[in-house]
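Our platform keeps sequence and structure together, in a single record for each protein. Nothing more is needed to write down the fold, since each code stands for a local backbone conformation. An entry from our holdings is shown next, in its original layout:
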Amino acid sequence: MLRCPVCREKLKPMTQYAVVCACDTYPVIRDIVYLKKNKAKDNALGYLSRGRIRAATIALLDSRRFLNYLVAFVPHLPLTWLFAIAALCFPSGKAWWRYLANRDRRITHILSLATIGAIQKNDTVVDICCGTGNFLARASLWSRASRCVGIDASFFLLLLARLQYVPLRVLLVCADVNLGLPIHSQTVNRAYLNDCFMYIHQKPMMNELRRILTSRGDAFLTHVHNRGKHNIGQGRGVSPSTLRSSTVTTISDKQLFAHIRNNTNIIYQKVSDSVYDHPSYSYRISSNLTRKPLPIPPQLSVLVKQIPIDFTEDTWLQ
């Protein structure tokens, strides 16, 4: 199902550590396919040709040398400790490290987990901008999907995902989604963009989602800021006109969380100005016009009773 983001031809396995297309060769490390054309890719391929897997991994990591060494401790320390160390060393990104450390408890993550109920047996699932893979880990565990794929621009975050959360049966892809999704058309049943739609090119992504979905597929965009209200975070919010379409339905995050707390089916509504008065919304893009209500995963009902939910920056949802 993967294709080269440049020539758009099918990727074929070349060796255990590389895939090839019509225009280039890309490295594969820990079942993470690296689909970027840069010097790091070329260096990694050189190391892999000599069997130096660890050196190839470091070559693809963040250019800041300290992070490269920090990754060496990932298998041995909890991620919360690693992110705390990173926050001390890089204070300018303290909020980002804190966000990653608390991701499992963040209300935005809880909202995304509610949509796992849409995944059916033997579905192909793609998590776009998957980060450290928290959603993918539970989607692969809570559903009967036959194939799960995570895509992110950061090899550093994908490596954390592989080492801490995501099993090897989940394929991870390092690619810039703003250049298009490295996926063949009509091959995906459920696509997810969780807490990230504000940070990418929105109209091209909408076109890409419609391209990759099957005739009965769905795409879910959770926690998208409302451009008409105070921006509760960073990124570029969405107005009703941006996503108004016969294939798009929506629900406010406040209503979605109420469904989670009450363990009732999620009902999405047609996008209109009259219902667009909350700070953030979640959306469903469906090529299947029946749009049946979604059941809350039973595992999520248990989870929300067991963990203290972090409402930082989203206190209005409490």
About this structure: The radius of gyration is 19 Å. The mean pLDDT is 87. The CA atoms of residues 215 and 287 lie 6 Å apart. The chain is about 35% helix and 20% strand.
